[in-house]
Amino acid sequence: VAFVPARAAVQVKNVSRLCHAKPIVTVNGMYPGPTIYAREGDRVIINVTNHAQYNMSIHWHGLKQFRNGWADGPAYITQCPIKTGNSYTYDFNITGQRGTLWWHAHIFWLRATVYGAIVIMPQNGTSFPFPQPHMEANIILGEWWNTDVEELVKEGDKLGLPPKMSDAHTINGKPGPLFPCSEKHTYALEVEQGKTYLLRIINAALNDELFFAIAGHEMTVVEIDAVYTKPFATQALLIGPGQTTNVLVRADQLPGRYFMAARPFMDVPIPIDNKTVTAILQYKGIPNTVMPVLPQLPAPNDTEFALNYIAKLKSLNTPQFPALVPLKVDRRLFFTIGLGRNPCSTCLNGTKLAASLNNVTFVMPKVALLQSHYFNIKGVFQTDFPERPPTPFNYTGAPLTANLKTSSGTRLTKIAYNSTVEIILQDTNLLTVESHPFHLHGYNFFVVGTGLGNFNSSKDPANFNLVDPPERNTVGVPTGGWTAIRFRADNPGVWFLHCHLELHTSWGLKTALVVEDGKGVDQSVLPPPKDLPPC
Ligand code: C2O
């Protein structure tokens, strides 16, 4: 086992974009933060010291943290935050995973600036199941606000309104020349003609699913969420917040300068956000004066492209990398995703937006859930989360605009160790249909089916892909549709399940699964580390 020790100093730094300077929270003064390079099988030890004025916690998005939720990071779910002046050491093994993942702050909206890539190389002696690229690069998509994000969120909360939209999208922290004052904040990747490059694309944006394309260059998708896929070529790709996508790109065009670009996917009649972030694919020896061309991105509301793209994602499913899809299901859950309104005395019209699963808006506890589970501290959460919506209705029929009050609570679902679980995530028209990227901590799951309209339990399962479905940690539930996921609950602990749109998470679109300990050796949650932050 190799050790990958690292120090992460959470500190404030002045950064300027779009001619607006502001103090932002960073790790080691970097924006985006440093990349963690590791190899499958490594033990990673990261000492985080918090020098910022905010409480902090860091999540290693997509790492399974087997029996070791203590290192997972979501504040008040697996740990209490690291207070100003304190530190905590995240200590974890990377087992059975290789590929691209990422890390980010998991408290308030601090992941707006606190994020970075995790690159896990294949185990020594093994290689990629695709041709070895000449070189690789990280492409991290993000969002930039000209003013303080935490302030915006606070103001919005008071009035019951969402904070204003970001001012730019970014690639590796840079918006590119289509934004004002951003000529010098443009990421460029130099390539040599005839060579092949591996791009590790990460969507670290807070609230947008994004289309991504490179002018004149086809991309071959080879991995999603650190799981190899059956390779396929595409002109553009769709990536939701939390997701990663590895592509191979061959520099096979006339030497020149080509824009890479990303723009939100918004499948609503009038997309409100169509700003485009650009970076440059620059052939060696070509002067910077040559004006690059823009790629053809799908229209912001091109649902058809999105659905076709998603349908092409399949697990590689070879003897070396099998797709171990649970064929039989022990536990079936049906969660409706709704947006509603709850009372609010300071809000403009007396109500604020609230998001819910099965009509429950999640309330953050004061004591971390994993601690209360492990030490059996009573009164922190209930395990009575409804297995299905309280009153079934036509989920995706005519819009329901009634003022639907949701109930609030810290309610979880208890799952028996090693049982096989199926969750149907059903979007609803409560207020508005919308696409939701759902993320489960502690696991990868298989996306066995997806469709538009209401899930039909007597018809739809017949069409499930139980052979080579995509395996991932974050999946988009289509607007006015459903997604079915399956996994084996072999990782004991308390695992967060939430929409990765920060707006929706903050409105309560989240819950957690309590996976019980098994009876055998190596089947229970490990003891907590000594320096686990106290609540
Ligand atoms: Cu990437 Cu719970 O988050």
From TrEMBL:
Pfam families according to UniProt: Cu-oxidase (PF00394), Cu-oxidase_2 (PF07731), Cu-oxidase_3 (PF07732)
Main location: secreted
Keyword Repeat carried by entry: yes
GO terms classed as biological process: lignin catabolic process
InterPro entries on file: Cu-oxidase-like_N, Cu-oxidase_2nd, Cu-oxidase_C, Cu-oxidase_fam, Cu_oxidase_CS, Cu_oxidase_Cu_BS, Cupredoxin, CuRO_1_LCC
Cell compartment(s), UniProt: Secreted, Extracellular space, Apoplast
Protein keywords: Apoplast, Copper, Lignin degradation, Metal-binding, Oxidoreductase, Repeat, Secreted, Signal
Free-text cofactor note: Binds 4 Cu cations per monomer.
Catalytic activity: 4 hydroquinone + O2 = 4 benzosemiquinone + 2 H2O
Top EC category: oxidoreductase
A Gene Ontology cellular-component term: apoplast
Record has Secreted as a keyword: yes
Co-factor(s): Cu cation
GO MF terms held by the record: copper ion binding; hydroquinone:oxygen oxidoreductase activity
Plastocyanin-like domain location: 10-124, 139-285, 385-518
E.C. numbers: 1.10.3.2
NCBIfam families cross-referenced by the UniProt entry: laccase
Function (record text): Lignin degradation and detoxification of lignin-derived products.
Family: Belongs to the multicopper oxidase family.
Protein name: Laccase
Organism of this sequence: Stephania cephalantha
